Each structure stands twice: as structure tokens, then as C-alpha cells.
């Protein structure tokens, strides 16, 4: 395997890490509002129980995206430059949403006031729904390709970003992440919130199967290679296994593991469909950005390989340890009272 | 406005904004770690309460720094795609290192620190905040190594076949003298910001405690030691700022003479020019500048470390040289901005120095100052290091114009790029739209940030029932109450 292939692989791995970890973070954020609307007990405590399942970990999960973006820049500058400038407005929307999510989560508990929390929850909802949809759109755009001319310029029209395939991609990731988030809450909570999580997961399982399955099939038929059938097969089987476990209302731990497999298999499917392109040209295949014409020099790739292959295992180890430290379930009752200040001085 | 102008405004606004919050994060993390260490070693609960108090302020600030940081990484590709193509082989690597080595540590261990008060043994929990403190400083190093390549490209050569700059020596990139001194300077600025913040907040609480009988004990055991410690940090940081800034200035006279000439309003090449303190210019060019106050000897010393016998190139002569070397064009940065940003940076530094000295004097031998003016002085001092940081970066980056990669006088002359060449070919309207979106969002968030910080400072350190006791047996039951929750 050459360095360019290795870096295609590493970047796929970084996006895998990002979507596996942030996938359920987005899902939890998407469902935080609904968790406050159903079931027994104080709605605020139920929302907080849901939010605090990702409390200690969501910030570190997001770093997988930052590292993936920087790795694109460093390993395939031409790809990074072409994609990020062509998808200017979708990325602007993602950035806007993720900023709202970060300050929404961090500042929510700082002021003990219902109206303040409502605004924070709006930020968290926007910040979870918008990226959950738009990452699907963005990956679908990548796989489908953009009109790149012989000089490497992209002549973008709205139909290149929004069309049946990319919209389905957005719905697929949104439905998948919502389901994934519900499974995660079921795994991390006890009591009524857990019951609600199972209920949500059951409701969300059918849209997830239909939308993600449809998108996977379309990707395979339109852009896939023969071996990516395997990735699609693994994704479908794992998703069905997760759904079956949830419907049987047992072993949400294995359902969660299955969902990790689903997300990983979808990433493999998408990157497998791309390979060896990074961004296909819809005008002429010769004008595509590939791992060969888009990469950095072997010297840069070698340095980056040493750094990432030594540091990433360490990252996985201490991130894994974080999940171990915070492994216990939480309940709405066990959430401590808000320590936020009142809006005005008393 | 054309695309270049709008793109530059957007990058300028989002970057200056991001760097309002970052220095406080970089400087405050080690100070909080030191406070927590003092608590762990001495068992004195005052340090515990200070840790919690400044920890909350830190987290309010940390959130917005993280949120605005992602924008920075994306913008290189979004708005400066030609630049990204040209230097990606070099510039991307330090960004990736920043993610791998700094951000992962920082954000994982901040989560452990926030939620881990009763989940982790005391020393491990303490180690978490130290990891955060080192990681935030490591991130500063990598991003400044990347920035320094734009100021003074080293370790790279131009490849005529690919038409881009390529890395030939990663070690040289990381040990770029511009990067090392700029890093130390930025870290010193961060410690000044955080030290001043701690000192001024506690000084204000100290003055206020005279009106509150029940806070007499807090004033003695918490506010006074913290304000003294903060002042000492600020003074040490100021000394480091002068020292590192002086070395940076000397490097800049060699590496970017145009930047320094415009910072000094030095239009013509002169031997032993005077240092200008005040000029008046009607237009942004060399033809209409009137020097009002000048000081001899200072400028030769800043440039070369000697008081006389130093010849410094002026803007007009440099412009001619550049035209000969790089072809026709305007190679002068905005004189007004570079001149005044440089002076603002230095002038604003004097306020926290004066404040720190006043603090040490007024708190001498156990005194608890109760002068109203001192409380006001503290409040007025808080923003000055923030403004000085911004002014310093405005000077550094505006002084680099019109280059995005300034040609290295002793390096490969083809490793160079102007902002005009580096910008993405977008419709100006679209960039104007994103500029409006960012400005509005950032404006709203700044108001909330300020209000939250102010609200928490005015409240002062809250009572905490008891210091945390780490849970004994983590597997005693399935469900456990959290010591902290969002």
C-alpha cells in the first residue's frame, strides 16, 4: 500500500471515528426536546438526563471532525481546497449550527431560568439536526461528484448540491443518527427515561431502515464497486440486528455495538465507492480529483503517517478510558439540582 | 467591495474574535491547575473555592473559544482555496498535529475534569486539568508554527512542476525562529491576560468585601492571596512580553522590513532614525505624514540592539526594491493601521503593569484595600490585555499585507503568495452573506458571553457545602448520582 492509499484509509478512519461518536451525540441532541415532552416526572430533569449521557464526551468526539478536516488539508490539499470552497454554503450552515450546539450545551446550565434553557435547547436542537442532515448531503455530494473542469474549477449549480440522491443522503444520516441516539440513551440511562428511549428507538427504527437502506442501495447501484456490496450487506445486517434487539427490548449494549458497525460500514461504503477518486468530476472522469493528483508530497505524508499512527492509538485509549470512568447509568432523579445562577441577583 | 476585501474582512473579524477568548483559555488553564494543586497540597479550602470559581469562568469562556475555532480551520478551504492548494503540503501538517496532539487531549480531559470531581481519585483529577493546561499551550505552538510560515517561510521550496510550495524540512518548520518567539510572545500575552483577569476580579471582590461583613474571612483567605498571585503572574508575563517582543522586532527588521518600516512610519531610508510616538497623517500614504513627537536612539536599539550607526530601510525604498524583485504592484501595508496597532499593543500593556504594581503596594503586609478608585481601576484594567492581544495580531497580520506568504529574504523567492492570488473565486455577494451571518452570530454570542462572565463575577465565589470526596467503590450500584451535570 502506498502512502496515498494509506492516507485515504486514515481519513476514512477519522471520519469513521467522527460519525460513530458524534452520530449518537447528534441523535441525543435531536431527541432532547422529545424526551422532555413524554413520560412521567419533571420534563426538565428528563431533558437533562438525556443531555448528560453525552455530557463528558461530546466535546472530545467533535475533535475527530477537526482532525479529519486538518488531515484532508495536510494529506490532500487539492481535495480540501476544492470541496471546502465548492460546498461553501452547506459548510457555513454546518458551522453556524455547530457553534449554536457548543454554546447551547455549555451555557445551558449556567443560568437557572426556564426561558434561558429554552433558548439553549433551541440551539442544541438546531445544532444537532442541521449537521445530522447536512453531513449526509455532503457525503452524497462527494460520492456523486461535482462539475470540475480541466483546470480544476468547479462550476456549481444548485442541482449539484440538492438533488434526489443528496437529499436522501441527508435524510438517511438524520434518521440513522436519531435512532442511534435513542439506542445510546437507552444504554446510558435507567428508569423512565430508558423506557422512553426504547419507545423512541422503536418508532425511529423503521424510518432508519427505509431511508438509510434506500440511500445505501442507491449508492451501491449508482456508484458502488462489486466489493462494496459487502459493506452494504454488513450495514444492513447490523442495522436489522440493532432494530431486532431494540424491538425485543433487551441488550441495548449489543444494539449500540451493532449501530457502531452500521455507521462504520456506511463510511466504508461511501469511501469505497469514491476510491481512488476523492471528488469525481461529473463532466469528464479525467478531471476528477484523485488520491494521486490531489495529494501532498511523500515527505509530508510520511511525517503525518508517523504522527497519526503513533498518536491515534493513544487517543483511542484515553477516550475509551473516559467512557469507562463515566460508564454508569444515569437517571432523571439522580441528576443534581441546577447550580446555575438566577438571571438577576437576588 | 470585491471578493478579496470581503474575504479579508471575514477572516479578520472571525480571527480577531476567536482570539479574544483563546488567550484567557491558554493562560487561565495553568492558573486554575496551580490553584487546584495548592488545594490538594495544603488542604486549604480557599484554593478549592477559587478553583471552582475561576473554573466556571474558564468554562464559559472555553465554550466560545472552541465554537469559533472550528470556523478557522474550515475557512482556509472555504475562502482561501488557492492559498490552501499552494501551501497545503506544508501548512496542513501543523494543523493536523494540533488536532492530534493538542485538541484531543484538551477536550477529552476537560470533560473528565468537569464531570470527574467525585468519579476520579483526587490526584488523577488534578492531573486532568494539568493535561488541559499543557494541551492548550501545545495548540498555540502548532497554530503559530503554521502562521509563522506565512510570515517567514522556511523548510520549503517551490516545485515548478506542480506549481506549489512543498515541504522539504519539517524540523525547520517547527523550529522556525519566528515561530518560537511568536509562540513565547503569545503565551506571555495569554498569561498577562489571565493573570490580570484573576488579579483584577479578586481585587474588585476585595474592595467590595468591605461592604459585606460576612466576607471578611474570604477577603483575607481568598481574594487577597489570589489578587497578589495574579499580579505577580501579570508582572512576570509583562517582562516576558518585552523580552520576546524585542527579539521578534529584531527578527522582523530582517525578515519583514516593510512591516517594521510601516509600523514606524519610516518612509525614507535613514541612518539612526528617531522612534516616532505620534504622527498625523491625512491619508494612508507617505506623502502626508507629519511627525509630531520623536525620540532618538530607541529605534536603532529596537532594530539591531545598538544606539547608533544603524541604517533602516524606508517604505518608499522598499517599495521600489519589491517592484524590481516581484514586478509591479503595491507592496505597502496599511500604514495607519500598522503604525497605530503597534503603539496600541505596547501602550495597552502599561495599564495592567500599573495595576499590578498598585495591587502589590495596596495589599502589602496584610492590608485589605478599600479604595473605591482601586475597584474601578481593577474593572478598567480587565479588558486592556485582551485589546493588546488583538492589536498585536492586527499589527502582525495587517503588516504582512499584501502577502499571504511573505517571501523569505534568504529562502526560496518563489515560495510567496499575495492575498489576491490566494483568495477563493467566489461571488462577492455570497461571501458578504457569510460575513453578515458570522458577524451577527458572533455579536450576539459576545453579548451573552460578557453578560454571563459579569453575572458570575458579581456573584463571587459561591458557597460549596463540602469539598468533593471521590466515590469509594465504583461498582456498588448501577446508578450513581452525578456530582455535576449540565
Q: Any overview of this molecule?
A:
The complex is a heterodimer of chains A (about 350) and B (about 475). With about 350 residues, chain A is mostly helical. Chain A is built from twelve helices and two strands. Chain A has helices spanning about 5-35, 45-55, 60-75, 75-85, 90-110, 115-145, 160, 165-190, 190-225, 230-245, 250-275, 300-325, and strands at about 275-280, 290. Chain A is globular, with a radius of gyration of 21 Å. The model of chain A has no long low-confidence stretch (mean pLDDT about 90). With about 475 residues, chain B is mainly alpha-helical. Helices cover about 70% and strands about 5% of the residues of chain B. Chain B has 15 helices and eight strands. Chain B has helices spanning about 5-40, 45-80, 80-115, 120-150, 170-175, 175-210, 215-255, 255-265, 300-305, 315-325, 335-360, 370-380, 385-400, 420, 430-460; strands at about 155-160, 165, 270, 275-280, 290-295, 310, 405, 415-420. In chain B, strand 4 and strand 5 form a beta hairpin. In chain B, helix 1 (about 5-40) packs antiparallel against helix 4 (about 120-150) and helix 7 crosses helix 8 (about 255-265). Chain B starts with a helix and ends in a 27-residue tail after the last helix. The mean pLDDT of chain B is about 90. Classes of the chains: A mainly alpha (about 350), B mainly alpha (about 475). The interface between A and B is large, with 76 and 80 residues.
Concise structural overview:
The complex is a heterodimer of chains A (346) and B (486). With 346 residues, chain A is mainly alpha-helical. Chain A has 12 helices and 2 strands, in the order αααααααααααββα.
Amino acid at each position: 500500500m502506498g502512502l496515498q492509499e494509506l492516507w485515504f484509509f486514515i481519513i476514512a478512519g477519522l471520519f469513521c471515528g467522527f460519525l460513530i461518536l458524534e452520530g449518537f451525540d447528534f441523535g441525543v441532541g435531536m431527541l432532547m426536546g422529545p424526551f422532555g415532552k413524554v413520560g412521567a416526572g419533571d420534563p426538565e430533569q428528563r431533558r437533562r438526563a438525556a443531555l448528560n449521557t453525552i455530557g463528558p464526551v461530546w466535546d472530545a468526539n467533535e475533535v475527530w471532525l477537526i482532525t479529519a478536516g486538518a488531515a484532508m488539508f495536510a494529506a490532500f490539499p487539492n481535495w480540501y481546497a476544492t470541496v471546502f470552497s465548492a460546498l461553501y454554503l452547506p459548510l457555513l450552515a454546518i458551522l453556524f449550527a455547530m457553534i449554536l450546539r457548543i454554546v447551547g450545551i455549555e451555557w445551558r446550565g449556567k443560568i437557572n431560568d426556564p426561558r434561558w434553557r429554552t433558548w439553549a435547547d433551541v440551539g442544541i436542537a438546531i445544532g444537532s439536526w442541521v449537521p445530522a442532515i447536512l453531513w449526509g448531503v455532503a457525503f452524497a455530494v462527494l460520492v456523486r461528484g461535482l462539475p470540475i473542469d480541466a483546470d480544476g474549477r468547479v462550476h456549481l449549480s444548485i442541482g449539484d448540491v440538492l438533488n434526489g440522491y443528496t437529499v436522501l443522503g441527508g435524510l438517511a444520516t438524520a434518521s440513522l443518527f436519531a435512532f442511534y441516539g435513542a439506542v445510546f440513551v437507552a444504554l446510558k440511562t435507567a428508569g423512565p427515561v430508558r423506557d422512553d428511549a426504547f419507545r423512541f428507538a422503536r418508532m425511529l427504527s423503521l424510518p432508519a431502515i427505509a431511508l438509510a437502506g434506500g440511500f445505501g442501495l442507491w449508492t451501491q447501484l449508482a456508484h458502488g464497486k462489486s466489493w462494496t456490496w459487502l459493506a452494504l450487506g454488513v450495514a444492513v445486517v447490523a442495522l436489522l440486528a440493532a432494530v431486532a434487539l431494540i424491538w425485543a427490548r433487551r441488550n441495548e449494549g449489543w444494539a449500540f455495538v451493532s449501530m457502531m458497525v452500521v455507521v462504520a460500514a456506511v463510511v466504508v461504503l461511501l469511501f469505497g465507492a469514491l476510491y481512488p477518486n476523492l471528488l469525481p468530476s461529473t463532466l469528464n472522469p479525467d478531471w476528477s480529483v484523485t488520491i494521486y493528483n490531489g495529494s501532498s508530497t511523500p515527505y509530508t505524508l510520511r511525517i503525518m503517517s508517523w504522527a497519526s499512527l503513533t498518536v491515534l492509538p493513544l487517543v483511542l485509549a484515553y477516550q475509551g478510558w473516559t467512557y469507562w470512568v463515566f460508564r454508569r447509568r444515569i437517571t432523571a432523579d439522580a441528576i443534581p439540582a441546577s447550580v446555575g445562577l438566577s438571571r438577576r441577583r437576588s | 467591495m470585491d471578493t478579496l476585501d470581503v474575504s479579508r474582512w471575514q477572516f479578520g473579524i472571525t480571527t480577531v474574535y476567536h482570539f479574544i477568548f483563546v488567550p484567557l483559555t491558554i493562560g487561565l488553564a495553568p492558573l486554575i491547575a496551580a490553584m487546584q494543586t495548592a488545594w490538594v497540597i495544603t488542604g486549604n479550602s480557599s484554593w478549592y473555592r477559587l478553583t471552582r470559581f475561576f473554573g466556571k469562568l474558564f468554562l464559559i469562556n472555553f465554550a466560545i473559544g472552541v465554537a469559533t475555532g472550528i470556523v478557522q480551520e474550515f475557512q482556509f478551504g472555504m475562502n482561501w482555496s488557492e492559498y490552501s492548494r499552494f501551501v497545503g503540503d506544508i501548512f496542513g501538517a501543523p494543523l493536523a498535529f494540533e488536532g492530534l496532539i493538542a485538541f484531543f487531549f484538551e477536550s477529552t480531559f476537560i470533560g473528565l475534569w468537569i464531570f470527574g470531581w467525585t468519579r476520579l481519585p483526587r490526584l488523577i483529577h488534578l492531573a486532568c486539568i494539568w493535561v488541559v493546561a499543557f494541551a492548550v499551550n501545545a495548540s498555540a505552538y502548532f497554530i503559530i508554527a503554521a502562521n509563522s510560515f506565512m510570515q517567514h517561510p522556511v523548510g520549503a521550496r517551490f516545485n515548478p512542476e506542480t506549481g506549489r510550495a512543498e515541504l522539504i524540512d519539517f524540523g525547520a518548520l517547527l523550529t522556525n525562529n519566528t515561530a518560537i518567539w511568536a509562540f513565547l510572545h503569545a503565551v506571555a500575552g495569554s498569561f498577562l491576560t489571565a493573570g490580570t483577569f484573576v488579579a483584577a476580579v479578586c481585587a474588585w471582590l476585595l474592595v467590595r468585601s468591605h461592604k459585606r461583613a460576612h466576607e471578611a474571612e474570604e477577603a483575607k483567605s481568598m481574594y487577597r492571596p489570589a489578587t497578589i498571585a495574579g499580579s505577580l503572574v501579570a508582572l512576570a508575563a509583562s517582562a516576558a512580553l518585552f523580552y520576546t517582543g524585542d527579539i521578534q522586532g529584531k527578527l522582523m527588521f530582517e525578515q519583514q522590513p516593510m512591516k517594521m518600516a510601516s509600523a514606524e512610519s519610516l518612509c525614507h531610508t535613514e541612518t539612526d532614525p528617531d522612534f516616532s510616538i505620534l504622527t498625523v497623517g491625512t491619508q494612508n500614504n507617505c506623502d502626508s505624514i507629519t511627525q509630531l513627537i520623536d525620540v532618538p536612539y530607541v529605534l536603532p536599539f529596537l532594530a539591531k540592539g545598538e544606539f547608533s550607526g544603524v541604517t533602516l530601510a524606508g517604505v518608499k525604498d522598499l517599495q521600489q526594491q519589491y517592484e524590481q524583485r516581484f514586478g509591479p504592484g503595491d507592496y505597502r501595508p496599511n500604514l495607519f493601521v500598522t503604525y497605530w496597532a503597534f503603539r496600541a499593543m505596547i501602550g495597552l500593556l502599561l495599564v495592567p503593569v500599573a495595576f499590578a504594581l498598585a495591587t502589590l503596594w495596596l495589599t502589602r503586609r496584610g492590608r485589605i484595600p478599600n479604595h473605591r478608585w482601586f475597584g474601578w481601576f481593577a474593572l478598567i484594567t480587565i479588558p486592556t490585555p485582551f485589546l493588546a492581544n488583538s492589536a498585536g495580531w492586527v499589527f502582525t497580520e495587517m503588516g504582512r499585507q499584501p502577502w499571504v506568504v511573505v517571501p523569505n529574504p534568504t529562502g526560496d523567492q518563489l515560495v510567496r503568495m499575495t492575498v489576491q492570488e490566494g483568495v477563493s473565486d467566489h461571488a462577492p455577494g455570497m461571501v458578504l452573506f457569510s460575513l453578515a451571518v458570522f458577524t451577527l452570530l458572533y455579536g450576539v454570542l459576545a453579548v451573552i458571553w460578557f453578560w454571563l462572565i459579569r453575572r458570575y463575577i458579581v456573584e463571587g465565589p459561591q458557597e460549596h457545602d463540602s469539598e468533593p470526596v471521590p466515590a469509594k467503590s465504583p461498582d456498588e450500584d448501577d446508578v450513581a448520582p452525578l456530582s455535576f451535570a449540565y
